[in-house]
Amino acid sequence: MVDSTGAGDAFAAGFLAALLSGLDPRAALENGCRAGAVAVAQVGGRPPVPGATAQSAGIAKELYPIDTD
């Protein structure tokens, strides 16, 4: 973790975006966790960018895989 600024906001955005796009709650939770992980990997808050949460969560999926076993 580099900086916790925006972690909760990123989690909420990732979770809600996934849930509203039709993913099941578990997948939405994973998406929120990945978005939060991306947020804490950089210094400071960032202004919102359309689609950034989904892109960040996709990148985080590769960097921070979640073991579902």
Kindly describe this structure.
It is built from 3 helices and no strands. With 69 residues, the chain is mainly α. The N and C termini lie far apart (25 Å). The mean pLDDT is 76.
Question: What are the main properties of this structure?
Answer:
single chain, mainly alpha, 69 residues, 3 helices
Number of helices: 3
Uncertain stretches: none
- Report the order of strands and helices: HHH
Helix content: 55-70%
Distance between the first and last residues' Cα: 25 Å
Provide the β-strand percentage band.
Answer: under 5%
Q: List how many beta strands DSSP finds.
A: 0
Whole-number average pLDDT?
76
Specify Rg, calculated over alpha carbons: 11 Å
Structural class: mainly alpha
The major β-sheet equals: none
> Which overall shape is indicated by the principal axes computed on the Cα atoms?
globular
Brief characterization of the structure:
With 69 residues, this protein is mainly alpha-helical.
Topology:
Layout: H1 7-20, H2 25-39, H3 52-63
Helix pairs in contact: 1-2, 2-3
